[in-house]
Structures are given as structure tokens and as C-alpha cells.
Amino acid sequence: MQPESERRARPVKQREGVALAGVVRGEDPYLFFEWKVTYGTKTLLDVPQKVILINGEFPGPRINCSSNNNIVVNVFNELDEPLLFTWNGMQHRKNSWQDGLAGTQCPIAPGTNFTYKWQPKDQIGSFFYFPSIGMQRAAGGYGAISVVSRLLIPVPFDPPADDLEVLIGDWYTKDHAAMAKLLDAGKNFGRPAGVLINGKGGKDAADPPMFTVEAGKTYRFRVCNVGIKTSLNFRIQGHDMKLVEMEGSHTLQDMYDSLDVHVGHCFSVLVDADQKPGDYYMVASTRFIHDAKSVSAVIRYAGSNTPPSPNVPEPPAGWAWSINQWRSFRWNLTASAARPNPQGSYHYGQINITRTIKLLISRGHIDGKLRYGFNGVSHVDADTPLKLAEYFNVTDGVFKYNQMSDVPPAVNGPLHVLPNVITTEFRTFIEVIFENPEKSMDSVHLDGYAFFAVGMGPGKWSPEERKTYNLLDAVSRHSIQVYPRSWTAIMLTFDNAGMWNVRSNIWERHYLGEQLYISVVSPARSLRDEYNMPENGLRCGKVVGLPLPPSYLPA
């Protein structure tokens, strides 16, 4: 089954000799990409608008790779504003230098280029990348990342006839810079104009068919919500979906007729082309907002000239359905992931919790303008990236550690606007609680790690809720939803040294301060635990002209 428009990224041909050299030296294979990032005009939802293109494409090129491949992406910024890319779900082991956020990296200036180098180290699964500065994410610039297992690692399902990306997300027809100005002025940008699927909306999404299938074959669909605000429900007319993977973990293979996909989340389903040959709608609809929007693309059985039935299945209603569906997701304990040992050989539920961090999502007004934060602290980026200030030991005047406590303030006082950096002890097992007192949905993400989402429920969290935790087979993943006026609990070992972002995937909230950074420092200061700043690392702010600090000790 082939998409009508093939958009998969290819290694840059002139660099193939380098890739071969990497193999000869015994390294993992190299994949090289060159991206020219520009503005372009696209008519989306019947409105011509400025979008961010990569090599002229929207969405951007797909990165297809295997576990442990060396991914080298040379980004040429031809915009008129600074640019960074973040790789949503990539853990960047020992290497927060490549995370592509304002807290870890100086921006790529207009008219210049920067080369990212990272590995999906011991990772498999479905992910995506996007531009992380300001509201650029609302202008596109996103694309899929597919990481397959190495050849000798068993996969718990037969190879599909094809492996297809489905990028769905809400879309606003406002210019991304205008959206940022609205937020800066204390206003909001309201509800989305519609929904896109693989960069198409309205009638453009349904004609021509997006995918063509052959009867009797099975296909893998990797579905990611790349939007900025709205949860979506995904379904395929007349076809059930077998869930097999979620954000880098193999799941128990249950069947679903529709799946909620929250902002920043990804999953894989297997779909059998076992229906009467014809055309069928693939639908993504908004959830939990009054002015519902949807988009329908067409899957065509090869040789069909039968139009799809107009009876498109309705999305489910209400929160309870969504929460119950989340509770049905289970980690596949016997399947291998990136390594040959079974996923379930890691018994996270038997590890003692050394610390609990309770993060209350805070909302308030500063000078009459809306801000968000955690525990009364609303994050603002510093002129010097936090990781660089820490590495060069020039944090004075840039940020102070641990200005936020592990528990929300007893009194809901005014928000404090400052760079929000907390520390955790290296290799400790920590419980993190997110509480969302708002009337709208939230989705949170942690860079550098996968965590176990062990519980969620209504109201405020208390220690009694631990009795409800799933301590056996919660799915290991990087993003999780927090329902309105509800809590969500996650657990993880902080064993990846670096500076890592915790953020709302709801980009309006993220822009207005609902994020923080966690500094995880290895006391050994060893290259076994963290890489030095890369030789091509950009400098800005207080670290310009400073001599490099001593190297970390040899591994």
C-alpha cells in the first residue's frame, strides 16, 4: 500500500561514503539528511496562509530508521526568525544537547545552519518532530519519525504489507506570529478552524484517496496528534484496529473501533483490509470542545470505484469513555522492544519510591495577562540556555535551582515568573503527580525519558490513590493526558543525565509558562553518563567567548 504522495526522507546521496565508513568502523549505521526550512503559502481549510516547509514539503520529510542508527540532520534556517527542532519522544541518552529546546540549545539564527546528531538509542516506535520556538509549531514544520527494531530482535506481529504515517492535528488559520502576539497581549486564539490529516483538510483530504490497499492484506498505521490544543478521536469506517505500539512500547493487542489521541501522543494499529472492496473514510474528530470539527480522508481498495458510504461513524461522547479506554491499555510484558529481553523483565512496581513531586497546574494573571505554570512558578526562557549556563558554571544571573517546591503552595498566591529548574538525584526512582484544576484538557510530556503512567482519577490526588495504581503493566511512554479537574500519576528512574523539559503539549499553555526543566547531574561527571557539549554546539548569552570547561572523565 503506497501513499499517493511519497514523502519519506532519504539519506543525502553525496554523504553515502561517510555512512559506509561508519559501518566499517563498527559503528551503528549513519543516516544523513539535509533540510532547507522555508516559509511557503498553502491553502488549508480554504484559507491561503503562511506555513513552515521542509525541503518544500508540508508535513516535513519522514525519518525512517532503526534502533541505534546515527541520525544526522543538517538544518538550514531560511526563515526570518530563529529556529530549533525538537524530536518528540526521542530520549537522547546522555545527550540533552540535541533536544532542541530553548533551555538546552542556542537557536539557529536566520541564514545559518546547524547539524543535529542523535540516536534512537534502545528505542523503537512512533514519534514526530516539530519546531519548538514560540508558536512556530502552529505553522507546520512537523514530520514523522519511525523507528523499527533491529533485524535480530523479534517483533510481536507479522510484517505488515506497508507501514504508513497518519499525522492528525487541529489547525488554526491565523498566522503563527499573530497567535503569539495575541497571547502576549493577554488574549487567546480560541478554537481551531478545523482538523488536518497529513497536511490536508476539508475536501482536499478526501480527493484523491490518501492510501490504496489490497484486499486480504494487513497494514500498519502510525497515528500521531501533532496539533497544538485539541484531543482527537481516530477511526476507520467499517474496520477495527488492533493496537500494537504506543510511543515506543509494544502493547497488548486489543481491538478498537476508535481511539482517542491526545495532543503529542502517538500509537500504531494494524488494520486488515478484510471488507468489501470500496472506498472507506479515515476520520479524525475533535473531542471535548463544543464547536466540533473533523476531517475525513479516503482509503481505497485497489481497483475500487465505489464511493465511501456517507454514514461516517460518530465519535464517542464524554470523558468517562476516554478514561475507560486509557485503562484498557496494557504493556506487552512478553514482547521485546529495542532489546531482546522482554519488556516485562523490568519490574517497576517493585522499586521503592524515593521522592514524590506533586505538580499542580497553576493559572493566574501578571499585569492583567494570563500565565500558566506549575506550583505557582511560571517558566520563562533565559537569554542563555539553562544547560549551557550549568555546563559553563555561569548560572548566577541566569537561573537559580529549586525555586519551586515538591508540593503546591498552601495558598494559591500570585505566580512567580522565572526560569523554573529543579534538580533530581541521579538514578533515583521518583513519583510525579500532575493535578489539573482547569475545566479543559491537558497533556504533559517529559523529554529524555519514558515513564510509567500508573494512575489517573477525578479530583485531587492523595496518598490513598496509590492503592489504585497499575504496578504491573502500565505502558511505558513519554506523554500522558490529564483530564479536567483530575490527576495523573507517573513513575520513572531519573537515570539519563542532562537538562530535561517537562511541558504541557497544549502549546498555548506551554508558551505561557506551563513547563519546567529537570537538571539530572551524574556525580561521577563521567562520559559513561553524559557527553560533553558537541564541537559544533552554538553559543549565545553569557557563554559567548568562554573557554570550554574540563571534559567529563573517560568512561
Automatic annotation (TrEMBL):
<dbReference type="Pfam" id="PF07731">
    <property type="entry name" value="Cu-oxidase_2"/>
</dbReference>
<dbReference type="InterPro" id="IPR001117">
    <property type="entry name" value="Cu-oxidase_2nd"/>
</dbReference>
<dbReference type="Pfam" id="PF07732">
    <property type="entry name" value="Cu-oxidase_3"/>
</dbReference>
<dbReference type="InterPro" id="IPR011707">
    <property type="entry name" value="Cu-oxidase-like_N"/>
</dbReference>
<dbReference type="GO" id="GO:0005507">
    <property type="term" value="F:copper ion binding"/>
</dbReference>
<feature type="domain" description="Plastocyanin-like">
    <location>
        <begin position="383"/>
        <end position="523"/>
    </location>
</feature>
<feature type="domain" description="Plastocyanin-like">
    <location>
        <begin position="166"/>
        <end position="303"/>
    </location>
</feature>
<dbReference type="InterPro" id="IPR008972">
    <property type="entry name" value="Cupredoxin"/>
</dbReference>
<dbReference type="Pfam" id="PF00394">
    <property type="entry name" value="Cu-oxidase"/>
</dbReference>
<dbReference type="InterPro" id="IPR011706">
    <property type="entry name" value="Cu-oxidase_C"/>
</dbReference>
<protein>
    <recommendedName>
        <fullName>L-ascorbate oxidase</fullName>
    </recommendedName>
</protein>
<feature type="domain" description="Plastocyanin-like">
    <location>
        <begin position="37"/>
        <end position="149"/>
    </location>
</feature>
<dbReference type="InterPro" id="IPR045087">
    <property type="entry name" value="Cu-oxidase_fam"/>
</dbReference>
<dbReference type="GO" id="GO:0016491">
    <property type="term" value="F:oxidoreductase activity"/>
</dbReference>
<comment type="similarity">
    <text>Belongs to the multicopper oxidase family.</text>
</comment>
